[in-house]
Design brief:
Layout lengths: L4 H17 L1 H11 L4 H17 L6 H15 L4 H15 L8 H19 L9 H13 L8 H11 L23 H18 L1
The structure holds adenosine-5'-diphosphate and magnesium ion (2 copies).
Pathway: Polyol metabolism; glycerol degradation
Pfam families: Dak2
Protein name: phosphoenolpyruvate--glycerone phosphotransferase
């Protein structure tokens, strides 16, 4: 398999479905340790993403990812808009000029996205942010040998659940200090939906 335009479009559609279904859940998680808007932010952003990419004709994966990024940057406020926007922009840039996206190019693109998130958010692993899902995903993708062998669904779920035990060091939840322990990180949960959607696309 190689990653094609239609795969990315389906990836975004599936991500959007999961985010819309869990919009209230994501906001409730953010109400516990933030300002309660994560579901609203993500639902608005991904709805706009799907609208945009369905009405456009694309010849490359890089171009789709560029529009995903620009839409998230312009439509999602808060911390998560610039962070997800940067992630998809880095993926797009990494794949620019590539006709065929084989597994190693894709893994490299996701790795670049993780670097972008870390730079933008000045976050590292263990700080109760979406880095705590993206970092293990990149490590897992590097271990898996090709698209057919990808096992990221489990990795995404486990790492998302593990954020519950972490004390927040970045973002609004950091103001709560120790009181952030015992709550899932909302951004890690939305990242889980995005990687769960990716896993479904790859397995189809
Ligand atoms: P806001 O906090 O501005 O209201 P959202 O609620 O949409 O934005 O997103 C919150 C999520 O963003 C958090 O759950 C966390 O995963 C992520 N986040 C916040 N700050 C950072 C950061 N500095 N680096 C990485 N991720 C972050
Ligand atoms: Mg919020
Ligand atoms: Mg906010």
């Amino acid at each position: 398999m190689e990653l094609q335009v239609n795969h990315v479009i389906t990836w975004m559609e599936k991500s959007n479905e999961k985010i819309q279904t869990n919009k209230d859940f994501l906001s409730a998680l953010d109400r516990a340790i933030g300002d309660g808007d994560h579901g609203i932010n993500m639902a608005r952003g991904f709805n706009e993403v799907v609208t945009k990419i369905k009405e456009t004709d694309y010849s490359t994966v890089s171009d789709v990812l560029k529009d995903v990024s620009m839409t998230l940057l312009s439509k999602v406020g808060g911390a998560s808009g610039p962070l997800y926007g940067t992630a998809f922009l880095k993926m797009s840039t990494s794949l620019k000029g590539r006709e065929k996206i084989d597994y190693s190019l894709f893994v490299n693109a996701v790795s670049e996205a993780l670097n972008g998130i870390k730079m933008r958010g000045k976050a590292s692993t263990g700080e109760k942010t979406l880095v705590d899902v993206w970092e293990p995903i990149v490590e897992q993708l590097q271990k898996d040998s090709d698209f057919e062998a990808v096992t990221i669904e489990t990795t995404a779920k486990n790492s998302m659940e593990a954020t519950k035990a972490i004390e927040a060091k970045k973002g609004r939840a950091a103001y709560l200090g120790e009181r952030s322990v015992g709550h899932l990180d909302p951004g890690s949960v939305s990242s889980y939906y995005i990687f769960s959607a990716l896993s479904e696309v790859i397995k189809e």
